[in-house]
Design goal:
298 residues, alpha+beta, seven-stranded antiparallel β-sheet, two-stranded antiparallel ribbon
C-alpha cells in the first residue's frame, strides 16, 4: 500500500493521490477493507457476529431537585436475560442528566416524552423513573440502533498488504452497552506505537498482537450477549460454567458494593478478569447471591 486516492465532494473536483508510508483503516464498523482485499486478490477475513439488535433511546433532563439522586453520579439498571429493558442515567454538564433507555432483540423505547417516561416504569427498579418523572426535558429524544457485534479475524489471513493496518471498530465492533470500544482502540494504538518504535511495521505481526488485546473484552461482551437464548452463537461447556458464575455475581452486586465496583473495573478494562476470580471475590459472590435471592425472587 503506497497511499490513497481521494476526491472532494465538490462538483467537478478532480481525483488526487495522497502518498503515505503507512495507511491505517480506522473507518469503523462500515470499513470496506474486506471488500477491498477481495477485489485485489486477497482473502476476506473470517467474521464472527453476535446479533443483539440493541437500541438506545436518549433524552436530556434538568432535575427539579438534584437531591433525588442522593449524591449518585450514575444509575445503571442494565438489561439482562432476566430483565431485558435497561437504562443509564448520568450527571453531565450544566446541571443536566442524560438518560438512555436500552432495548434488546428488537425492543426499543419510544422517543416521545410520554412514551419515554412510561418505559422507565418497566425497568427492574424504580430509581430512574423516580428521578425524572417530573424533570424538565431539554431536547427531543434520539434513537440509536446497533444490530450486531462483529469481529473480523485479520490475524488468521495468510497474506495481507504491506504498509496497511486495520484497528478500532474496523477490526472489532463491540456491543456499546459494555463501554469497551474506545478503550480497546486506545490499547490498540499503544500496540501500534510499540511497533512503530521498532521501525517498519509488519502488518501480520501487528494484527496478531491486537487480536490478543481484543480477545478478553470480546469474550466478555459476546459471552454476556449469548446469555439471551435468542442470540445465535456457540455455547461451550466453559461458557455455561462462566455464565452461571456471572449470574451469581450480578445477583451479589445488588447487595455488595465491592462486587459491583470490581465488576465495573473489569468491564471497563481497568482491571483484569482475574479480579473477579480471587478467593475473596468468589466468597463475596457466593454470600451476596445467597443474600440477594429472596429479593430477586419476590
Amino acid at each position: 500500500m503506497t497511499g490513497v486516492r481521494v476526491q472532494s465532494q465538490e462538483p467537478g473536483s478532480a481525483e488526487r493521490t495522497v502518498e503515505a508510508g503507512l495507511v491505517v483503516d480506522a473507518t469503523g464498523r462500515g470499513s470496506r477493507t474486506p471488500r477491498w482485499l477481495e477485489e485485489f486478490g486477497y482473502e476476506r477475513p473470517d467474521e464472527e457476529s453476535i446479533r443483539i439488535d440493541l437500541s438506545y433511546t436518549t433524552r436530556r433532563f434538568r432535575l427539579r431537585d438534584e437531591a433525588v439522586l442522593d449524591g449518585d453520579l450514575s444509575i445503571n439498571p442494565v438489561s439482562s436475560p432476566s430483565h431485558r429493558r435497561g437504562a443509564f442515567l448520568s450527571r453531565i454538564e450544566d446541571g443536566l442528566v442524560v438518560v438512555s433507555l436500552t432495548g434488546v432483540l428488537g425492543d426499543s423505547a419510544p422517543a416521545d416524552l410520554e412514551g419515554f417516561l412510561e418505559w422507565t416504569r418497566t425497568l427492574p427498579v424504580s430509581d430512574i423513573h423516580d428521578a425524572i418523572h417530573d424533570a424538565e426535558p431539554v431536547d427531543d429524544g434520539t434513537v440509536f440502533r446497533y444490530p450486531a457485534s462483529r469481529r473480523r479475524r485479520y490475524e488468521r489471513l495468510g497474506r495481507f498488504p504491506g504498509n496497511f493496518l486495520v484497528l478500532g471498530d474496523a477490526a472489532c465492533s463491540f456491543n456499546p452497552v459494555y463501554g469497551q470500544g474506545m478503550t480497546v482502540s486506545a490499547l490498540e494504538a499503544l500496540v501500534l506505537r510499540d511497533h512503530l518504535s521498532r521501525g517498519a511495521v509488519d502488518p501480520k505481526a501487528f494484527l496478531s498482537d491486537i487480536a490478543q488485546v481484543i480477545e478478553v473484552p470480546w469474550q466478555f461482551s459476546a459471552g454476556a450477549d449469548l446469555g439471551y437464548p435468542e442470540v445465535e452463537g456457540e455455547r461451550t461447556p466453559e461458557w455455561e460454567a462462566g455464565g452461571a458464575y456471572m449470574a451469581a455475581l450480578h445477583a451479589a452486586a445488588t447487595v455488595d458494593g465491592e462486587v459491583t465496583a470490581t465488576f465495573m473495573r473489569v468491564a471497563g478494562l481497568v482491571a483484569t478478569p482475574d479480579a473477579l476470580m480471587s478467593p475473596d471475590m468468589m466468597r463475596r459472590v457466593e454470600e451476596g447471591a445467597r443474600k440477594a435471592a429472596p429479593a430477586l425472587t419476590a
